[in-house]
Specification:
This protein is an alpha/beta fold. The protein has helices at about 10-20, 20-25, 35-45, 60-75, 105-120, 125-140, 175-180, 185-190, 210-220, 265-280, 290-295, 300-305, 325-340, 355-360, 385-390, 405-415, 425-439; strands spanning about 50-55, 80-85, 95, 100, 145-150, 165-170, 200, 225-230, 235-240, 245-250, 255-260, 310-315, 315-320, 345-350, 370, 395-400, 420-425. The strands form 3 sheets. Strands 4-3-2-5-1-6-7-8 form an 8-stranded mixed β-sheet, with helices on both faces. A 6-stranded mixed β-sheet has the order 12-13-17-14-15-16, sandwiched between helices.
Length: about 450
């Protein structure tokens, strides 16, 4: 069948509408098993076999770890592919080579040429996007690709790769409808990315009694893989924050590192990254102290990372963060409590499949004004329902039908020494960034 070539906008709409997009519709987009992924991979000639890879999974922090590793490798002279999800503004953020997004024309050509093949397979959006990403990285003859797991690990369609190194940042409660209701069950799904005779870095080994450490040790032993727990080999001696809000780490082996990422959660991510880099060096990767420092210092500029304790404006300070579950929100609240300001203006929205009550119970109430809103995705919890749930834990606020109107109201109400925070969901942050950068 012949298809008239579409514009980029039409192509993206086709991808969103013809293949279920998890970030929009949630559970109905989730496909268990790798059959479709393997069929797509075979059709394109197994492109994932044509480059080295580093596989990054976990509940929180995998985006920051993936981008920072990509930045370090790029500054080390490697041609680096980076595959992450979800995107915030443009679909092409998911697929980058040396920080540059895949061209619009390549996305258009992929759909025009391949839809006769893939449409009868009814792939999910992520299956199709992963196939495009691996094909593009092979075409670009990259040296190494940092691949972020989409959801879980064992059955995630990125799990067809055979990486040089696997990383699991941490385990906490998220996507429990797919991965299990206990931390050990979730860990077992995440541990599915541990490959035979392939080193694995675990960012956090879990707490006594939760079974997480034992799950990882058992899987690594089964696969005859070297396992390192980053929190047990901590290379960070101390850390401080500079006037720009960047974190400065004094480390055992890499000197003083300045990180562009300033969120409090980044200490654990940095510990994981340094453990991973040590292993990569032993595997033969050429990473100097200078390139590691440059990679940390310019991760956002080098890779295009957005939404991680991102400061958008000053006077008032406007900050957004994509943390969206209990574990992520704990760090955000801790960081907010450390800020010296007259008043907090909290723009909050969530999706309907998260632990909403758990998040709301953590949010600050002292000197805080709330603006409840919803993101422009089908999974978004209605702002009125979120406000009702918030009232049950003692938080009152006004409701706004979209992020833009909530943000404008906060800007109108905030004094120059106030703080405006925007978050609760990746998609709330996406709507804010789209408004700020695309208006």
């Amino acid at each position: 069948m012949y298809f008239i070539e579409m514009t980029y906008k039409e192509t993206i709409e086709h991808l969103f509408n013809s293949a279920p997009l998890f970030q929009n519709v949630g559970k109905s987009a989730y496909k268990e098993g790798l059959d479709t992924t393997l069929e797509l991979d075979a059709h394109f000639g197994h492109p994932h076999r044509k480059f080295k890879a580093i596989h990054v999974g976990g509940t929180n922090g995998k985006g920051s770890v993936s981008h920072t590793l990509a930045s370090i490798l790029q500054h080390s002279g490697y041609k680096v592919g980076l595959y992450t999800s979800p995107h915030l503004i443009d679909f092409r953020e998911r697929i980058r080579v040396n920080g540059i997004m895949i061209p619009e024309k390549r996305v258009i050509d992929f759909v025009a040429k391949e839809r006769n093949f893939y449409e009868p397979l009814h792939p999910s959006f992520f299956e199709l996007t992963t196939a495009l990403a691996f094909l593009y990285f092979a075409e670009q003859e990259v040296d190494v690709v940092v691949v972020e797991v989409g959801l879980g690990g064992r059955l995630d369609c990125t799990n067809i790769i055979n990486p040089d190194l696997s990383i699991i940042t941490n385990i906490s409660y998220d996507h429990t409808q797919f991965l299990g209701t206990t931390l050990s069950q979730i860990a077992a799904e995440k541990a599915g990315i541990i490959k035979f005779n392939t080193p694995i870095v675990i960012g956090e080994s879990g707490n006594n009694g939760d079974g997480v450490r034992e799950v990882f040790l058992r899987k690594a032993n089964e696969m005859k893989s070297l396992i390192k727990f980053a929190n047990e080999e901590d290379q960070i001696i101390s850390y401080t924050r500079d006037l720009k809000g960047n974190l400065i780490y004094n480390t055992c082996n890499w000197g003083v590192i300045e990180s562009e990422l300033g969120g409090l959660c980044q200490k654990k991510n940095t510990r994981t990254i340094l453990c991973a880099v040590n292993i990569l060096c032993k595997l033969g990767y050429n990473i100097s102290t200078e390139s590691l420092h440059s990679g940390f210092k310019s991760v956002c500029k080098t890779t295009g990372l957005m939404g991680r304790w991102q400061i958008l404006e000053h006077k008032p300070l406007v900050v957004c963060d994509t943390g969206h579950n209990v574990a992520g929100i704990k760090y955000i609240v801790e960081h907010l409590s450390a800020l010296k300001c007259r008043r907090l203006h909290m723009i909050v929205g969530m999706v309907n499949d998260k632990d909403i009550r758990g998040v709301l119970q953590l949010l600050p109430q002292k000197n805080a004004t709330y603006y409840f809103t919803k993101a422009s995705v089908h999974r978004a919890l209605p702002e009125t329902q979120l406000a009702e749930l918030a009232r049950e834990v003692g938080i009152k606020g006004n409701v706004f039908h979209d992020v833009k109107s909530a943000f404008l109201a906060a800007k109108e109400n905030a004094a120059t020494n106030d703080v405006i925070f925007v978050g609760g969901s990746t998609f709330i942050v996406a709507d804010l960034l789209s408004y700020i950068f695309c208006r």
